[in-house]
């Protein structure tokens, strides 16, 4: 009896799969037609993608969770976009870093991710149009700002057109499950710091060695069964390592935020952020004069970060993220007033807030 029921369900699934397949290809046909209408212009439309993902989550009747259906549609759009034109995404390599995982989370698996030797090189690859977009880390919930990305954004002509929020999980990885106890643990210095307490408890006497990236640590562990690596899932997969202990980070909400930059400006979606960098005139109360226009216009600020300006001793620039788009009247008002009060204001970009 239960065999009969199982057969019925499988028949139903076969029928549905045939319809899903047909519909997916119909969808792809429309995307390809849109690509022809765009006629070699900008193919990737972050505002449209955010709208599609948001709607899928809102309309999802279950039982699949909203996050899961959004991830599936993320991949469907990635494949549809690749029919129009495959995208190339520059990131700080090597293969298997969290930045690559962020690029795949944002653009899906059909995009080509291109490993670069530094964040500078990744920016240059897009500025010179060798790659279409760059994904760069901008802040981590435990380690704070990524200074190099902030500095590059001040001078780069690229515009921010998206953000990616990635939960960072670190795993203890080995070449094989039955390897002898490790002599050394390799990882990036930040990851060793983020797993400090776990290491003290579980591997107190094992030497900790910092290397250039977690992916490099994983590569080393894949070649030597006497060492372990701390790295993420992408590096584990890339180097076919075995997870000995999972999610060993001390801070359970360890999250990194990445920005996506390219040559385009996004139109408003109703759920946007605007990132700016500005500097205050050198006089008392100057920082207050930067914040007051934002508060007075009723705009919510989601980030305020200061950095030495690199042009004068003890001069600072301020990175501010606010909710809304420069086309929204309250953001327009805040920016106009800011331009009047500040020594320098640059809009780094306006983009849809992360959906996934
Ligand atoms: O609507 C478009 O402009 C499309 O090209 C279609 C589509 C999609 O698959 O939905 C694909 C790529 C774009 O980034 C946005 C959406």
UniProtKB/TrEMBL annotation:
Residues 1-88 form the Chorismate mutase domain. The record marks 256 as: Essential for prephenate dehydratase activity. Gene3D superfamilies: 3.30.70.260, Chorismate mutase, Periplasmic binding protein-like II. It comes from the Bacteria. Residues 88-263 form the Prephenate dehydratase domain. GO terms for cellular component: cytoplasm. CDD domains: ACT_CM-PDT, PBP2_PDT_1. Pathway: Amino-acid biosynthesis; L-phenylalanine biosynthesis; phenylpyruvate from prephenate: step 1/1; Metabolic intermediate biosynthesis; prephenate biosynthesis; prephenate from chorismate: step 1/1. Pfam families: ACT (PF01842), CM_2 (PF01817), PDT (PF00800). InterPro entries: ACT-like_dom_sf (IPR045865), ACT_dom (IPR002912), Chor_mutase/pphenate_deHydtase (IPR008242), Chorismate_II_sf (IPR036263), CM_dom_sf (IPR036979), CM_II_prokaryot (IPR002701), G/b/e-P-prot_chorismate_mutase (IPR010957), Preph_deHydtase (IPR001086). It is found in: Cytoplasm. Keywords: Amino-acid biosynthesis, Aromatic amino acid biosynthesis, Cytoplasm, Isomerase, Lyase, Multifunctional enzyme, Phenylalanine biosynthesis. GO terms for molecular function: chorismate mutase activity; prephenate dehydratase activity. Residues 275-352 form the ACT domain. Its EC number is 4.2.1.51, 5.4.99.5. GO terms for biological process: chorismate metabolic process; L-phenylalanine biosynthetic process. Its main location: cytoplasm. It catalyses: prephenate + H(+) = 3-phenylpyruvate + CO2 + H2O; chorismate = prephenate. PANTHER family: PREPHENATE DEHYDRATASE P PROTEIN, PREPHENATE DEHYDRATASE-RELATED. Catalyzes the Claisen rearrangement of chorismate to prephenate and the decarboxylation/dehydration of prephenate to phenylpyruvate. This is Bifunctional chorismate mutase/prephenate dehydratase.
């Amino acid at each position: 009896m239960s065999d009969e029921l199982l057969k019925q369900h499988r028949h139903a699934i076969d029928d549905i799969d045939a319809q899903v397949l047909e519909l997916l290809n119909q969808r792809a046909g429309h995307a390809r037609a849109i690509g022809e209408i765009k006629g070699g212009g900008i193919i990737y439309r972050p505002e449209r993608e955010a709208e599609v993902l948001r709607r899928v989550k809102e309309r999802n009747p279950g039982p699949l969770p909203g996050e899961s259906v959004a991830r599936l549609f993320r991949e469907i759009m990635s494949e549809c976009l690749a029919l129009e034109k495959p995208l190339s995404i520059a990131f700080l390599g090597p293969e298997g870093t969290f930045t690559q995982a962020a690029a795949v989370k944002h653009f899906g698996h059909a995009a080509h991710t291109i490993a670069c030797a530094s964040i500078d090189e990744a920016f240059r690859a897009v500025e010179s149009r060798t790659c279409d977009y760059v994904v760069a880390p901008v802040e981590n919930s435990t380690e704070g700002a990524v200074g190099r990305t902030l500095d590059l954004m001040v001078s780069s002509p690229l515009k921010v057109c998206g953000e990616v929020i990635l939960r960072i999980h670190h795993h203890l990885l080995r070449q094989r499950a039955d390897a002898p106890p490790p002599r050394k643990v390799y990882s990036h210095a930040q990851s060793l710091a983020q797993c400090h307490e776990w290491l003290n408890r579980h591997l107190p006497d094992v030497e900790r060695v910092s290397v250039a990236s977690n992916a490099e640590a994983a590569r080393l562990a894949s070649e030597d069964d006497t060492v372990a690596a701390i790295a993420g899932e992408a590096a584990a997969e890339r180097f076919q390592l075995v997870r000995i202990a999972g999610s060993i980070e001390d801070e359970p909400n360890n999250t990194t935020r990445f920005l996506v930059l390219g040559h385009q400006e996004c139109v408003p979606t109703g759920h946007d952020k605007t990132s700016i960098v500005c500097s205050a005139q050198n006089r008392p109360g100057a920082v207050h004069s930067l914040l007051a226009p934002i508060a007075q216009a009723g705009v919510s600020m989601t980030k305020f970060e200061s950095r030495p300006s690199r042009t004068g001793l003890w001069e600072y620039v301020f990175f501010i993220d606010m909710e809304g788009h420069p086309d929204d009247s309250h953001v327009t008002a805040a920016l106009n007033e800011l331009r009047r009060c500040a020594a320098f204001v640059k809009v780094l970009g306006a983009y849809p807030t992360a959906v996934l």
